[in-house]
User: Which sequence fits this backbone?
């Protein structure tokens, strides 16, 4: 079991460019979560899919951020027109078929730096 | 909105010592509590969960929950240098849609 895979591990973009982050959940897991981690804000929930359907995007900045889960094997987080304040570690987590409060398994994260 | 605060922000304990981490939360409807540990350059990894009031022990780790006092804690016995990491408490509930709200974190350094 390779765990949750996130690519790339590091991404540097210029201000105004687009960034797409990829997440491959653990095989068989039904839920995928995206979080953002910064020194100032800590770990913040962004969005959540269950069985590929969007369930909760209450943490997503309404402009410029979007997430998709086109199939059960991957999810993407896209940031358009990146800004320096988007610099953060973006973490993806997946959860198995059991209880909704069950353990979430995190990937290593993608460190996004916006210059 | 749920607020989860942790103390202390940072902690240094000698190897073999006891580390005590504290977490308070604001939503009385909170149901499920997790402790996650994050080593540098890695994603958080679940250490243990606690869902009922009282103590729960798993090896060197003991979690304590008091929902009425809005308080959860983690105690690490016989701390090892490999325990040096960031520790987060995380809270969820049905009315939060089962998404995790993380605490502010405690940085633990175990001094060999």
Assistant:
């Amino acid at each position: 079991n390779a765990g949750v895979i996130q690519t790339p591990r590091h991404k540097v973009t210029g201000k105004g460019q687009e960034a797409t982050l990829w997440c491959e959940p653990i095989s068989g897991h039904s839920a995928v979560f995206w979080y953002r981690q910064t020194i100032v804000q800590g770990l913040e929930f962004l969005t959540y899919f269950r069985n590929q359907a969007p369930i909760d995007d209450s943490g997503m900045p309404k402009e410029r951020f979007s997430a998709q889960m086109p199939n059960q094997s991957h999810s993407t987080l896209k940031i358009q027109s990146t800004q320096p304040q988007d610099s953060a570690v973006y973490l993806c987590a997946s959860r198995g078929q059991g209880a909704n409060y069950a353990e979430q398994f995190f990937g290593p994260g993608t460190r996004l730096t916006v210059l | 909105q749920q607020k989860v605060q942790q103390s202390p922000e940072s902690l240094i304990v000698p190897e073999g010592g006891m580390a005590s981490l504290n977490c308070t939360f604001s939503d009385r409807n909170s149901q499920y509590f997790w402790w996650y540990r994050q080593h540098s350059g890695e994603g958080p990894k679940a250490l243990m969960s606690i869902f009922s009031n009282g103590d729960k022990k798993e090896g060197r780790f003991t979690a304590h929950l008091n929902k009425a006092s809005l308080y959860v804690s983690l105690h690490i016995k016989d701390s090892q240098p490999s325990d040096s990491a960031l520790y987060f408490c995380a809270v969820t509930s049905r009315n939060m849609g089962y998404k995790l709200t993380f605490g502010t974190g405690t940085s633990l350094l175990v001094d060999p």
In short: The mean pLDDT of chain A is 95. DSSP finds no helices and eleven strands in chain A. The two ends of chain A are 36 Å apart (CA to CA).
